[in-house]
Fold this protein.
Amino acid sequence: MKNYIKYTVVLALGLLACEPELENPIAEDNFYTSGSADLSSFVAVGNSLTAGYADGALYITGQENSFPKILAGQFEFAGGGAFTQPLMADNRGGFAGLEGFPNRFVLAPGADGLSPTRLSGSPASDFTNILSGPFNNMGVPGAKSFHLGLSGYGNAAGVSAGTANPYFVRFASAPDATVITDAVAQNPTFFTLWIGNNDVLSFATSGGVGIDQTGNLNPATYGANDITDPNVFASVYSGYVDALTTATPDGILVNIPDVTTIPYFTTVPFAALSPQNPDFGPQIPTLNATFAPINQAYAFLGVPERSIQFNQNAASAVVIKDESMADISAQLTQVLIGGGLDVATATVLGQQYGQSRQANENDLLVLPSSSIIGEPNLEYLQQLIAMGVPQELAAQLSVNGITFPLQDQYTLTASEQELVATAQTAYNQTIAALATANDLILIDAEAILSQIAATGISYDAGTLTSTFATGGAFSLDGVHPTPRGYAHIANVMIAAINEKYDATIPVVNIGDYNTVNISTSTE
Amino acid sequence: MKKLLGLAIFLSACTLCYGGGYRVALQGQRALAMGHTGVAYVNSAELAFFNPAGLVYLEDRLNVSAGVSGVFSDVTWQNETYGLAAKTDSPIGTPFYLYGSYAATEWLSVGLAVYTPYGSSVEWPTDWAGSHLVNNIELQAIFVQPLVSLKISDKLSVGGGPIFVTGKVNFNRNANRTLTDLEGNRANVTVDDSGVTNWGWSLATMFNFTDHFRIGAHYRSEIILDSEKGTATFDNFPNDSGQPLVVNPTTVIPSNGTTGFKASLPMPGEMTVGVSYDNEKWAFNFDFTRTFWDVYNNLDIEFSNGGEAINPRNYKNSSTYKFGLQYNANQQIALRAGYYFDESPVREGYFAPETPRNDADGFTAGISFAINDRLAIDASFLYLRFEEVDASYDFYTENGRNVPFGGTYKSSAFVPGIGLSYKL
């Protein structure tokens, strides 16, 4: 009898070891392969797009969904090694005590429904807190092409002067280390390089307030919002490719997207003024009457195309300042005086409308303009009052985009877009040529983003588009992808790796990746 | 109110359906060892479950059987396209039974049966790839049934009685595939209820061609548990406002906190017919069971915070074919073996990971050891063999669109059991 009990117990214990097993488990070696590529040490070099930046900040959950992290997760099936990232200290983003690095955006409920709102509260990340690396993710938000090879870019002492980047300070191996030397020092067996976006993007997102530095070969003299000279770009970029390919012959170069395909420029329409708007619609007759003498003056001066006219039945174009046009303030003032206007008022109007026009379909309004259009410009209002303009008139003349022309930083005009496109095209030619010359994969990010903007990317629960906030591809800063957007980029890369190296790495399901965060709490 | 954010899902039917894909057929060690047969076999108090009409034919005045099983059941899943894999780490289920019958007169026996025909637990890794369908589920339903067994003649008897059911359920799943709070914690909801009760009945008959050759039939009614007093706890939603957050007319994010819910959870009726032949040395049983799973179309859950969840299940009636053999080696030892084929009620495209059940072959064996004339120890063992299956659940929706969740599943179940039979 005892034996039976004993056997029963033994049998029961034996069962604990009996687990269901699949015939071909994916965890088994060689289920997936990396083909001829060696993915054991993968280093990603670049800017915010490599770092996993989203929603206007770098924060942990964004970093965890960076495209290199997603790639590395899939590489693990095919010999990939550990992938480390210089994680921020929290999910707020931003740096404690450092201006210009605000917290991330979330979609928060407000009076007008959900709108992008920065989280409040002080960030936990301190850029002087140096992390011990090395890190596989060498993405440094804000870096331009020439920054990756810039000694001192990771020196905390240079942050206040703007010669160093706090994101790189956090994980540079030494104050004088460069991003590229720190990357190469890790002896990667595989790399991605995606740099150059900011060389045109900061000019574009700033509405073209910077300068096109084409022809100036000294990047040390560039301002933050300037366009990098394509020869400078080509020179530093080929240096990086040389450095990385000494470590490994296998890697990916990613080109620069067309900035006009991102929601930062496509969300606010040039005709942003709706007659249905109760703050604007009823004012239209008065406004048109106000602008009538100015329009007559424009006609007299031979520039009738500058006329300002608001439509009561359809959306009207905002009024913008276009620095590419001749400044006719003086002439306009004279004509207005000739028309019988008092000198003081004529001078104010001449100044205000000497270089303005209504926007057209070729102008792009930047995302931040959406929150100021139709709002009074208090700074200008004070200025007018100080000049002695009566309060009522001053108030009337200070409405952003209606009476007060949107300033340069809010619009990317056709000629400014041209400068961006020219430089971007030159950069991409360099990148494509280097990819071919070095037998590297070229990922056409320009085409990927154009496709998202034009037709969208179909996935299991819908279509990924570039529509702001709801399209799924772009985070709330209108520039950087969401985790789902990054996942799509990772998938394109995996497909390219599989093809080039005869590998069989699985893609991810982009439907499993998050988009924008909604929150009732902004603290 | 409108659908909750992409959560047309919320709760899957599985709550009780677990009993569906996983009707826990372990209602007697002797019967289980013989392929879970016994609708026509007069042997022990296990008849209280298998065919109460047969109780009156038991030789002894008092018969008691009790036992418990340990269910070691796990499921492994993978999706080759995306390199996803997961395996359950389910706690050991312990279904039990207690049966007694007493011969009041020569033509009337009364009895009591307590058993757990539905219930088990499945625990996937939290936030696994299918966490929008289930993270974990635990279900238990206890049936309590007073019985009468009436001898109409030496050849024919009837039996049955009302069934009182008390059930409890705990079920957790994520709100959808992506929703998190600001720290990246996945939004999830836990539904919990216990003490859910209802009544049902069963009715059986047995016909004896001879003392050795019998047929039987037993019908157990469908019982629907209406859960109305339980709690639904919403965690890690990015909404602490206490009010549902209306994102757009079709998307609402519920607030964190606890609310109520209503759901109806069916336990289907089942009909068993069978035949048994036995002599001094041998016994042979064949049972056929038809389970009326078609009652299980949807699991609709209404949350008190205004949300609702519609989960199509669309089960079909299923059949089980069972064979059992007993050999009385000597006065003390009886050896048993059996086989059954268990057809899954889950249709193609409705294969959900909380009921990862395809057709199965059940192989059983067991032994009884008589300690004395009155008391015997019954041991049994069941191995349920499942084919590896490529399957998907296609009725989870996001943005009004069906988003299939599929891959390759492989289940296994090992169930050792031990029990006692007593007669006086």
Observations:
- Chain A is about 35% helix and 10% strand.
- Residues 281-358+364-412 of chain A form one domain.
- Chain A has two domains: 42-265+414-512, 281-358+364-412.
